[in-house]
Amino acid sequence: MTTPQNGSVLEIRDLHVTVGEGDDAKEILRGVDLTVRAGETHAIMGPNGSGKSTLAYSIAGHPKYTITGGTVTLDGEDVLAMTVDERARAGLFLAMQYPVEVPGVSVSNFLRTAATAVKGEAPKLRTWVKDVKAEMAGLEMDPAFAERNVNEGFSGGEKKRHEILQMRLLKPRIAILDETDSGLDVDALRVVSEGVNRTRAEGEVGVLLITHYTRILRYIKPDFVHVFVAGRVVEEGGPELAEKLENEGYAAYVKDSNEQASAEKAAAEVVPS
Amino acid sequence: MSAENTTTTLAGELFAPGVGTQAGPPTTPAAGTGTAGEATPGAHSHGGPAPTGSPAERFTSTDPEAFGAPTGREEEWRFTPMRRIRPLLDGAPSDAHLQWDTDLPDGVELTSVEADDPLLKGLPEPVDRLAALTRARSGGAAVVRVPAEARLDRPVTLRLSGTGAEEVVWGQLVVEVGAFAEATVVLDHAGLARYSGGVAVLVGDGAQVTLVAAQEWARGSVHGGQFDAVVGRDATFRQVVVTLGGDLVRLVSNVQYAGPGGTAELFGVYFADETQHQEHRLWVDHAVPNCTSNVLYKGALQGEDAHTVWIGDVRIRPTATGTSTYELNRNLVLTDGARADSVPNLEIETGEIVGAGHASATGRFDDEQLFYLCSRGIDAETARRLVVRGFFADVVQHIGIPELQDRLMGSIEARLGGLPGLDDQPVEPA
């Protein structure tokens, strides 16, 4: 683990998030606390439906989610007050589990438009083309890929490589990888992981790695592991925690969480006489 | 932006009455019709009035009176604002002309023929009163001839400019392309006019012809038109219609095949602003074996009372074995108060086909696309432009003339610049 002198820090405090509106509103995140510093890699592990992806999308600003409490700051700046694009320009990046097709927009046009937005000026054409080619080669992507439309007809592996390609080129301060390992075969997982590791080796980025499985952690070694159940972090530790989860699964945590929820519900139902 | 704004509809399959259980194997069965903006229940019909398996023949005539005076309740007029098209339907004779500015590559001949010329008698007959009036009132036709086996070094360009809307302009054009020739013809409509124009394209055997019709009329213009393509044996006809300007544009494009092995590709883009009415009606008549048709029309709408109509009729007659056809219409509704009608209609009368399908979808901006682009630092307005540009680009690129493509994409982008309320619709933080 390396901690740069002037590293960025993402701080999440007591974050509460709901989906739906009015009576249909459902609380998904129930008080998340997390601090990610540049140079650190955090794995967030949890069962399906625990709210891992909600955390990722809430930080990125997806309009489907409503923040009902808590704070998110990047280097002290209020992330929750920013629009989606402002968050990206501030240095946040979300590699999505299900990247969206954008018909008629080529990968090369998309990448250059995004880079121009994030850097605040158009990158110089010659060096930019060289950079894109080098990064694509590093991710074992065919150069013809650049002329295809964004995510249109991409295989699962191509989508994830394209997400990591964007991360490499946009050089975020905090990168959130949402189930980047899902749907990848072993070769693709290796290639994608190596791409992430190249960014980590440069030491300038904090990584929040969201995953259901421990498989990707064999390629990307986390500094911290957080177990995420029912909308909050229920245990934290080092890499050894991932091994424990590999062997024992989430069952114990889910049981604890259910019991706690029952107790809370029972307490709430006690009517003062 | 919110999830509630997404109203994309992709209805299920709908094949016309008359499709027997043994009827062809549609290879691309995604199909449907959708409207957005105002709900339009019953805004589509399938298979015509006779659910008996033998659809009514389409009535054609060179005599305007044979059609009677449309009231607006007829199937072919029910979407059209009758008050606004009435000056054309009244059919007052006129000697007014559009201003012609032509660019003819070597070997291309531009002449004219009188009304009684055998060439005109051999054209497909008009399908509605307006088309019949046009044939009758234009008093002959301008004829563009491309000799057999010619390969033109550049497109034939006819810039037709309106100089005022006082009088109706009647015009008839015949494009005759000889066997095995390769030609692109651009009809560039601009200026202010009340114009009704017939265009017949006779595609010789083995020829490859692209007809581009761009409607960049000034506001206040009314344009009614009928395009007829007769596609020769093993020939390819490609039509690209781009309708951006004018108050009311109603274009009917018909395709028939003169021999087996023909291909017709009909592409279109349209962009309606407030109060604009843009109507595109297509009729592909498969009556000979082994022909192909492919239809792709895309439209965007913005502003109060912007209205677009797309009717895509494809008929596969019993004799048209080995037919392959697919048609697709997509509409992007950018603001409230706009209305897109979309009616695909496929009649299949033989099971011996390669494939037949159609699809129609009308929706708002895809919020997930916008979120994806914005999450990469791209501001909401730029993201919207990228999405709309992409939406149209995959049609416009079929024109194959880079300068014209750039000009038309520029026109589309300029329209987006006027997108009302963009500043009021930022991608809000959650």
From TrEMBL, chain A:
This is Fe-S cluster assembly ATPase SufC. One of its GO terms (molecular function) is ATP hydrolysis activity. Belongs to the ABC transporter superfamily. Ycf16 family. SMART domains: AAA. Transmembrane segments: none annotated. PANTHER family: ABC TRANSPORTER I FAMILY MEMBER 6, CHLOROPLASTIC. Coiled coil: none annotated. Pfam families: ABC_tran. It comes from Geodermatophilus sabuli. Keywords: ATP-binding, Nucleotide-binding. InterPro entries: AAA+_ATPase, ABC_transporter-like_ATP-bd, FeS-cluster_ATPase_SufC, P-loop_NTPase. NCBIfam families: sufC. Residues 10-255 form the ABC transporter domain.
From TrEMBL, chain B:
One of its GO terms (biological process) is iron-sulfur cluster assembly. Belongs to the iron-sulfur cluster assembly SufBD family. Residues 1-10 have a biased composition (Polar residues). This is Fe-S cluster assembly protein SufD. Residues 1-75 are annotated as: Disordered. SUPFAM superfamilies: Stabilizer of iron transporter SufD. Residues 164-391 form the SUF system FeS cluster assembly SufBD core domain. Pfam families: SUFBD_core. It comes from Geodermatophilus sabuli. Residues 16-43 have a biased composition (Low complexity). PANTHER family: PROTEIN ABCI7, CHLOROPLASTIC (PTHR43575).
